[in-house]
Each structure stands twice: as C-alpha cells, then as structure tokens.
C-alpha cells in the first residue's frame, strides 16, 4: 500500500517519506479500513517533529489519528456485515505506530464507527479530534441549556464545532475572533456576540456583551495567553475547559485568585477522554451529521503527494478549519 511515514524526527520535508509499506491484516477484534482521507492535527505534526522522543523506539511511524474510508475486511470476532461500511477512524496512531496516512489501516473495530451517508469522507476526517474535542469541552460538566459559554478562537478547528454544539444545546454563546470575516462566521455558527481577542481588555468586553453578566463556562484555545482576560469574565463557580496552550506551553496560575473564584479547570484531550465520553461524542456526532445539523470548515484539502505540505500548513497556521489529505481521489 502507499503510505507516508517517518523514521527520524525533523521537518516535514526532511522526515516524511512517501512510498510503499506492507498492507496490514486485521487481527481478532479489528477491521481493515481502506482510507479515502486522513486528517492532520497539531498533535500529528508535533510527534513528527520530535515531541515524544521514544515514539520511534519500535520502528517507523505512519502518522495521523483521524481518517475516513470503507471497511474492506474484518478480523475474527467482528461481524462480517461490517464489510463495505463507510466509517470514520479516530485514535489510529495513539499508543501504536501505524496511523491513517496510508491507503489502509487495521485497528480495533470500536475505533471505526459508522460514518453517516450524509457526511463526506473529508468531513469524516475531521471528527476524531476537532469534533470530539469540541463535544467534550462543551458537555463534560453537564447540561449547558440556559448557560452562557465563551468560546475563544471560535473560527478555529475546535471552536467552530464548539459554538455549534453549545448553541444547538440551548446555550447562549459568546465567541472571540480576530477579524470581521471570522466574526461573521462565528455568528453564522450560532454565536450571539463576538469580541476581538486582539484588543486590550477583551475580557471586559465579553461581560459588556453579556449584559453585564459574567459567563458560566469557557472553551479555551490558548489557555496561557488568554487566562488573564478569561478571569475578568467568568463567574464564581465557572468552568474553564481548555484543549491547547501552544503559545505559553507551561503557564503559571494565579492560584489564590482562582481558588477564591471556586473555578474548575478541565484539561481536554481526546486520547484521555473517558470511554463513556467518547461514546457520547460519537453518538451525538453521528446523529448530528445524519440530520445535517453541523456545518464544516475544511480549510485545505490536498492530494496525497502533498503530505509534507499538509504538515507545514498546520505549523504555519493563520487559518481556521481542518486540513485533510485525500488518499484515494
């Protein structure tokens, strides 16, 4: 099968190799998926760059955890009726070496849920990390109906879906965006108000936009940078659910201030989500996709030959939406 892999850490151009690898066979409890698309996320490019020094100890790594395709074979114990089923794949390269940047992937059948016919394979490649992360951030701490949720970076990969999950569940959503186009996009997704996080004291603007009331929850994209402003606009007893702190990777906390606000700080990463949370996210996502209730923002869809470019796009940033690589056009 054609595949992309790396045998050493480095830049995308230097480290990623495109060529042929043996087609895997499904072990007991596994399915073999012929992939049409693979999704590229920040965790994928960080692994290739060397964020986990022991990653290559077992041999080469085919990167990427997300993807979508069709089940072509099943292992012992898996119902043969699943052959031919359209599926999305998540956690393919978590705790193992062989991910979705290839024509085929063999993995636990539970990690390849059915992809509704209403969703394209490109959309399917955006479920595992972007959609499921957003779902966890919004719903991890209970019902949001009637609450006010702040979504920072609302036009981004995760924020885009977080706005939709929250608004459709009955929450009032306030988002942050850095330009008029992204602000309009956030409103289209369901945000009632949008403030510019590039402006000073934007936390106070959030309170003003909420009629002088502070917010109940926050879905946070840049925890370390945004925390001072977030603390200006969260109520006592609020929850901050954060999935990234790239600019300030090891932030310091104003512990006393946060303690006296009785805040809950939740760190979210799909890999460590409780299994029930994953099942809930998959169920809700499947229902929403089948009903056409989610809008999608695929910023870049590139051919397999441009795998290195897909990694570079994630590293360069400056855009909202997902990056997808087409394996079989």
UniProtKB/TrEMBL annotation:
GO MF annotations in UniProt: oxidoreductase activity
Organism superkingdom: Bacteria
A Pfam cross-reference name: ADH_N
InterPro entries the record matches: ADH-like_C, ADH-like_N, ER, GroES-like_sf, NAD(P)-bd_dom_sf, Zinc-ADH_QOR/CCCR
Source taxonomy: Bacteria, Pseudomonadati, Pseudomonadota, Gammaproteobacteria, Cellvibrionales
SMART domains according to UniProt: PKS_ER
Protein name: NADPH:quinone reductase
Native source species: Halioglobus japonicus
Domain Enoyl reductase (ER) residues, every copy: 11-325
Keywords, comma-separated and alphabetical: NADP
